[in-house]
Amino acid sequence: xxxxxxxxxxxxxxxxxxxxxxxxxxxxxxxxxxxxxxxxxxxxxxxxxxxxxxxxxxxxxxxxxxxxxxxxxxxxxxxxxxxxxxxxxxxxxxxxxxxxxxxxxxxxxxxxxxxxxxxxxxxxxxxxxxxxxxxxxxxxxxxxxxxxxxxxxxxxxxxxxxxxxxxxxxxxxxxxxxxxxxxxxxxxxxxxxxxxxxxxxxxxxxxxxxxxxxxxxxxxxxxxxxxxxxxxxxxxxxxxxxxxxxxxxxxxxxxxxxxxxxxxxxxxxxxxxxxxxxxxxxxxxxxxxxxxxxxxxxxxxxxxxxxxxxxxxxxxxxxxxxxxxxxxxxx
Length: 331
Prior knowledge:
331 residues, Rossmann fold, Dihydrodipicolinate Reductase, domain 2, 2 domains, six-stranded parallel beta sheet
């Protein structure tokens, strides 16, 4: 498959690193504004993960500075979108209308209406549309899904998801809420998507401000169901990226911390769960390409699920702005 990447910043570099390990995809075109990045030098892409500095050979790659031109490139089968969130819907809809398959980084868009428009255009033109909810391909979080859905340890009683990092100083646009949606849409969208994946939509939500920058603590309310909390966001500059979850069932508890994935059962046994050393970004992009080649819907990460995550994130922001007022959830 011939693919074009729009956006050569941090996430563009992450995706290029993943594609470089695949034999069955050709990066045929790239689009960006930085001459250094367009030359193939992405060694200063930045970001909050330990991405290896890399320089790519773009000598045979078509280079664009206007996304409107790359989406019309007749030789491309698919477009990978790694640009500021406020541009996701516009570019994705144009690419889908040009009969390109589209992979778009999370979050899907900044509004529910834009998410629904993206889905409608993908269906109209029979193209694959997939959003980069990488935790669905992350081994530790796949173990979480199995733990919850198997029912092996009885009903789930509670779950807490935590994700935090310093205000992203490697990016000029991320701290601008009208462009990124802020920390809830950009960062906590990971945990919001996981909560929806394993527990389904809650009936009501409530959220309050946490910290001095852009963070919250939220409760997802499930009648006769588990107590689910999501906490975190952007804090003061310099706070390292960290993520964790703790899920308690009737007869066991599964927790994920920087030290690993731990299962505590009712007998008092504390067991470290070995997880495969898999690059979630590579896994999600390989799955996207598989769906494109085979004309299949991305059932492991549907755009409808991604739209629900955006809608729930917006409800949490609304509740936070109302100082914790409970809001009915209709996602």
